[in-house]
Amino acid sequence: MNEQLTPRQLMILVAYFIIGTTILVVPSALAAEAKQSAWILQLAGTGSGLMLIALYVQVFKRNANSNLFQINERLFGRWIGKGISLTIALLVFVFCAQVLYYIGRFVTTQIMPDTPSEAIHVLFIITVVVGMRMGIPSIARTAEIYFPWVLLLFIFFILFIMPDIRVNQLLPAGEFESMSLVRGALQVMSYSFLPMFVTFASLNAAYDWRSSMAKAFVYGTLLSGVMLTVLVMVSTMVLGPDNTTTQLYPTYVVARKINVGNFLQRVEVIVAFLWFILIFIKLILYFDVVIMGIAETFRITKHAKTLTVPVGLLIAIFSAVVYPDYVYQQEWDNTTWVAVALLIGLAYPIALLFLSLFRKRKAAAK
Amino acid sequence: MGTHASDAMHDKQPVITEPSPQTPIAAQLPDNLRCIRDRVGHSADIIIRESSFAALGKPMAVVYTDGLVDVTVINDFIMRTLLTASAPLDGDQDPIAVVAATMLAVGEISVLTNMEQVFDHVLSGDAAIFIGGSTSALSAGTKGWKDRGVSETSVETVVRGPREAFSESIRTNTALIRRKIKDPNLWLESFKIGDVTKTDVAMMYLRGVAKDSLVAEARSRLLKIKIDGIFESSNIEEMIQDQQLTIFPTLYNSERPDVIAMELTKGKIAILVDGTPFVLVAPALFATFLKASEDYYHRFDISTLLRILRYAGFVVALSAPSLYVAITTFHQEMIPTQLLISLSAQREGIPFPAFVEALIMEGTFEVLREAALRMPRSIGSALSFVGTLVIGQAAVEAGIISAAMVIVVAITAICSFVFPSYDLSNAIRILRFPLMALAASFGLIGIFIGTLLIIMHLNSLQSFGIPYLSPFAPLELAKQKDAFLRLPFRKLFNRIRVMKDRA
Amino acid sequence: MAAVIVLLLTVSIAALELPRLWTGGAKKAVLLYVCMMAAGNVAFAARSFGYALPNPSDWMRVGLAPMTEALTRLGLIAS
């Protein structure tokens, strides 16, 4: 009973995941593509995300009650399946290190410049390890508890920034080439939606597949889509399209401008809390994929929790290795990342879908 | 085994005892009495009154513990009856059975078949009656010791509401609960726990309202306890709570009958322990500890506001010093300029960083708090007053601590008394310090991580199988009307519904 | 030095975790744990001595080079 995720928890996890690192990285990329129409790209991304979700839900439904790695072994055969599971675990391991890097860089460049980023990495990875040991149901409940506060913070953020909004910054709207739209949508998909498949598939065993679960995915996507679009719009309207492109973290700079009656100033750290919760959930969901992947491959699922400490250690070490410098990061994020995401978020689920249908037909034919 | 003649009249379950080596009751009376005298080492308060059973002409003895029995009952209803019984009996009828059935004008009677039972009963306050020639004995309920009686609560006081508190005698306590709930579905199961102390422990619940699985689980946990002595309900609490490593309490306790009765009507079970006025309630969730019985005795509007205040107080008590340390050390830009200027002026000559200041003040306050508990009452209040005000003031003037820090610590201390549960405030006291350490190292990020860890930990706790942070997570909207807010009674107490047993 | 501290920490954590696992029959888990901890400690020591660790992002970049080529040519990626 305690192991099942409720639809509401799933919706919240989906929403957190989608906004997660996206909010840090994507707005400036979108602004670079389409300047003041960045928000349209975000909308397009969300729309395509919905289609991807439909694909994923199909795969989930046809393989209910087994998680991603069990599906691999079942559809691809034992050894190839294990190989694929392990590859995915390793890929997501790198993602974990990257997310940790993002957090570290965000904190050390914006909030506490004197702290070495390794310290932040260690702090967050310890929290992730401890959280993982408490189990995914606890994490889901934690996400649920934070949810009203996330919404509240978001609303207050928008409310307090209203005085600084200049709507004319959004004009002229619609001035972008169609390839920009595709590229922007692809960026959004690579950060928010394509990694969702492996992440939520590894939790598949915890779903109780009723229609409300599929709806949970949709609601989560819609909610986060609205939030992201609003955020992109707001940063364009407050900072202007050029500034949004050049700033590392445009939304954070917007938060800096909050000034309520000369009393409530420079409260951007509170807004940063918002991002931290979301990124933390994303990180811990990725972490779950790595741990479960290794545990399933080597068949030690009952003692999966013990793997958390060594894997955590390795992630913390590699988070300083994975992006040697900023230029490398930009390059990698724009090119290889999209390729990887498309591979595990599009090609892989389609393959799984075909195999599931194929197996079903074979089983029905017998 | 003991047949309780009174079972037909009461709705109670038989006493559940642990099996022990059985020493049979000898047919010869002197053997039994020698056995008793040897076992208790000729203790002067175990009284053995030997005489003769008139109806049969056989020797008879009454054994009881002086101080635990109501001597009037023994004299008037046992001794007098047996000494003056006239009607002669057949020699082959078991005299004990006849006496039990026809002669004793006492309410509780049981037939005892071995010496261990005799000792149990005599040492609990009953009188044991031996008749020569019979291999069983009779126990008559004659309990009557000096009790503190029903007095006012000292720990949980209310402005409006009943003032009665439980006493140390378990029978008085169960009676107090029965006065609140006069429903025959209020069932009581009793246990004797503790190999040496053989403490009476009772479990009460409303059958049909409390989930059967919960009752069964509680019963099995109580039966599993293996320990020498039970002196307080906290001993039971430690042994039956869900096995998890946590500083947060998962069982609630109270010394007020109205609180316990209210929890019973919500489907919880109460565990009463003889010898302590604090009664346990299971299961206990986080929301339980932040409720006060007064919420139900005042109107819903003020109760809702006060409850919100309590939750806010909880947050402040936990994080106020940490927030102060974090903001003044790392995030000075968040403080409005005027305040910032006066704060930094105050911190001008202070030799310690904010974190050390906070540690010193908090540590001093904890010491004062512990000391105040143990001081004799006459000195107590004066000294704690002196301690906090004067020492704080002196420290500020000596330039060791800034005034703002004293204020923060004072606010924290006051807020930590806002919520009624002592166990929870202990947890807060402990958690405050690691949180301060995190705040001092990582600023608001540290506090974020700290609260995240605490919330994740709370979410992994269970009380008898129920997630600790229900009804907040997983979110059950139906239960929200009594968790955070308190909606009017019409919406709360629809009727006491029977809960279906969920797997 | 930092590497020694990390080693001490991992050993103490292992001392807390492993005995329970070993007697519980989870030999494979213990093996995996020890392997990964060893790898982690070695990696950390290597880094603190200045050796560069292999970068998995590099492997991914190289491995997926054909695909990134194709995507760039399609205009789906703007380099």
From TrEMBL, chain A:
InterPro entries: Spore_GerAB (IPR004761)
TM annotation in the entry: 12-32, 38-59, 79-104, 119-136, 145-165, 185-205, 217-239, 269-295, 307-324, 336-358
Compartments, as annotated in UniProt: Membrane
Main location: membrane
Record membrane topology: Multi-pass membrane protein
Any Pfam family the entry gives: Spore_permease
Record keywords: Germination, Membrane, Transmembrane, Transmembrane helix, Transport
BP terms from Gene Ontology: spore germination
GO-annotated cellular components: membrane
Family, as annotated: Belongs to the amino acid-polyamine-organocation (APC) superfamily. Spore germination protein (SGP) (TC 2.A.3.9) family.
Protein name: Spore germination protein KB
Organism this protein belongs to: Paenibacillus methanolicus
From TrEMBL, chain B:
Keywords: Membrane, Transmembrane, Transmembrane helix
GO biological processes: spore germination
Region Disordered: start-end pairs: 1-23
Keyword Transmembrane: yes
Transmembrane annotation, as ranges: 269-290, 311-330, 375-394, 400-422, 434-458
Coiled-coil residue windows: none
Pfam family, one: GerA
GO CC annotations, alphabetized: membrane
InterPro entries: Spore_Ger, UPF0353/GerABKA_families
Family: Belongs to the GerABKA family.
Protein name: Spore germination protein KA
From TrEMBL, chain C:
Membrane spanning stretches: 30-53
Keywords: Membrane, Transmembrane, Transmembrane helix
Highest rank taxon of the organism: Bacteria
Protein name: Uncharacterized protein
Organism in which the protein naturally occurs: Paenibacillus methanolicus
Phylogenetic classification of the source organism: Bacteria, Bacillati, Bacillota, Bacilli, Bacillales
